[in-house]
Specification:
Elements lengths: L1 H10 L6 E9 L5 E10 L4 E5 L6 H8 L7 E6 L2 E2 L8 H5 L2 E4 L11 H10 L5 H14 L15 H13 L5 E5 L7 H16 L3 E5 L3 H7 L2 E6 L2 E6 L5
Parallel strand pairs: 3-8, 3-9, 6-7, 7-8
Antiparallel strand pairs: 1-2, 1-4, 4-5, 9-10
């Protein structure tokens, strides 16, 4: 029975890549974080998620990563049925996505190469594959000459590029970028989104939370706006 569940509900490819149907989330204590959210994000899209503090952005992302479970509704991500998923399958889900954090989350005792390689070792990659793919990922983000540098020797922008390389190294179907420009200067913000846009052009779906409306207007990607736990706008072309 469990094998049937895996084949039919988890491993079967789904279209779109992200789908919420009637999803609501209420936290203990009564906070209504999301209410009756219906959304589809197709493979290969680049989507900005915007909204004021408390609008539901963080909960939206946590549900996609299965850090939280919805109270009602159906969520499918990368062919996985998150509504019925058992906790032991969550690592399988997360191996299909790369995550870029606002606060970088680099391991301070590891150099740049080791930080990126760590994401491959946890999924059982061989040493040869690690050397090849980490070098490729660092080259993509312009850090091929920083492989032996320690995180404290890098600028904030360079640390975020290491985070992006780490998200890319396992060739994920989906990249989730949670305020990736929040701790870098404006020029580097544009560089980060330019890199994400180039990655998106190669077929990777990108979902990026941001509070920077200038980036949203200038890059002309699809925009989902949350307010009070509801989707109040869903526009193509960067219109707010």
């Amino acid at each position: 029975m469990e094998q049937q569940f895996i084949d039919s509900e988890i491993l079967k490819p789904q279209t779109p890549i992200i789908e919420f149907r009637g999803v609501s989330k209420t936290y203990p204590g009564g906070t209504h974080a999301l209410e009756d959210v219906n959304i589809k994000i197709n493979k290969g899209e680049f989507v900005f998620v915007v909204g004021s503090s408390g609008a539901g952005k963080s909960t939206f992302m946590k549900l996609i990563m299965r850090e939280e479970k919805a109270n009602t509704g159906i969520i499918r991500v990368n062919g996985f049925n998150l509504t019925e998923m058992k906790r032991k399958y969550v690592p399988m889900l997360r191996r299909t996505m790369g995550i870029v954090f606002q606060d970088f989350r680099l391991i301070p005792t590891m150099n740049v190469f080791q930080n990126v390689a760590f994401a491959m070792y946890v999924v059982g990659a061989t040493g040869r594959d690690v050397r090849r793919e980490v070098s490729k990922a660092l080259s993509k983000v312009g850090l091929g000459n920083k492989a032996r540098s320690m995180p404290n020797q890098l600028s904030g922008g360079e640390q975020q590029r290491v985070g992006l390389a780490r998200a890319l190294v396992n060739s994920p179907d989906l990249i989730i970028a949670d305020e990736p420009t929040g701790n870098v200067d404006p020029n580097m913000s544009y560089e980060i989104v330019n890199m994400l846009t180039e990655i998106n052009k190669q077929g990777t779906t990108v979902l990026m939370v941001t509070h920077d409306h200038n980036l949203v207007r200038d890059f002309h990607h699809r925009v989902i706006m949350l307010d009070g736990g509801k989707i109040v706008a869903d526009n193509a072309g960067g219109d707010l």
